[in-house]
């Protein structure tokens, strides 16, 4: 079987029928030609064992799991094409498992850095450090509420103003899948929200808005991008690398710090609004560290 000709036919189909971009076609060509070169007799005539040996080889060569998965995906599509066109009577990739990519650990912040960030926000809100006290009060309310609740940034910026008009320790938030969940509010977050609410009332354009953090855009509330920019600026002024912080990092800090201090994984799942516990299990490394510390601190035979 002429593998080079089969690869060209596959790439022509991807371009003409599926409108694949030039970069995509280049990536397919590189992956398929590499596989064909490494497999004796060429890729088009390869058996499942040949492809498995090739995958083992690229793993041994140090390719990342994501790269291995991408190469296998290209090979799978190539053989589906050959089978559909009657150029092969079988698909040798049908029994192959995709390489496990693994999940990167979430970026987070230490409790000390989080404290410095919140202290800086409170300082600027109280002392008008930058000459724009309403903006400083808004930012202070945003970071206090985010760290107190672990909300997704889209949930945070779209909060209704009624959240700040009550003195409740909990409120309901509507998250992914239109599901509601109860989240806690710390005393500091409630105080910061009330201070921002008072300042917000002095801005005529915002006074009647149904949102806690209103803005002039189409959505009616502060954009995620503006909050992320302001948060990075706050971090820099607090002496924390702006590259290490984002609203999502603060959400992860909320979860990690709860677990470090004894919270149950299921409780954190509910607070974060994860539909499946498997999503929350990215934090199991925190639990493992806590268990090691527990044994080291309390086991009678620990050094």
Automatic annotation (TrEMBL):
Q: Does the keyword Ribosomal protein apply?
A: no
Catalytic residues identified in the record: 152, 176, 248, 251, 274, 283 (o-(3'-phospho-dna)-tyrosine intermediate)
Q: Which InterPro entries match?
A: CB (IPR044068), DNA_brk_join_enz (IPR011010), Integrase-like_cat_sf (IPR013762), Integrase_catalytic (IPR002104), Integrase_recombinase_N (IPR010998), Integrase_SAM-like_N (IPR004107), Recomb_XerD (IPR011932), Tyrosine_recombinase_XerC/XerD (IPR023009)
Domain of life of the organism encoding this protein: Bacteria
Instruction: Output the Gene Ontology cellular-component terms.
Output: cytoplasm
One annotated GO biological process: cell division
Name the major location. cytoplasm
> Quaternary structure per UniProt?
Forms a cyclic heterotetrameric complex composed of two molecules of XerC and two molecules of XerD.
Functional summary from the UniProt entry: Site-specific tyrosine recombinase, which acts by catalyzing the cutting and rejoining of the recombining DNA molecules. The XerC-XerD complex is essential to convert dimers of the bacterial chromosome into monomers to permit their segregation at cell division. It also contributes to the segregational stability of plasmids.
Q: What is this protein called?
A: Tyrosine recombinase XerD
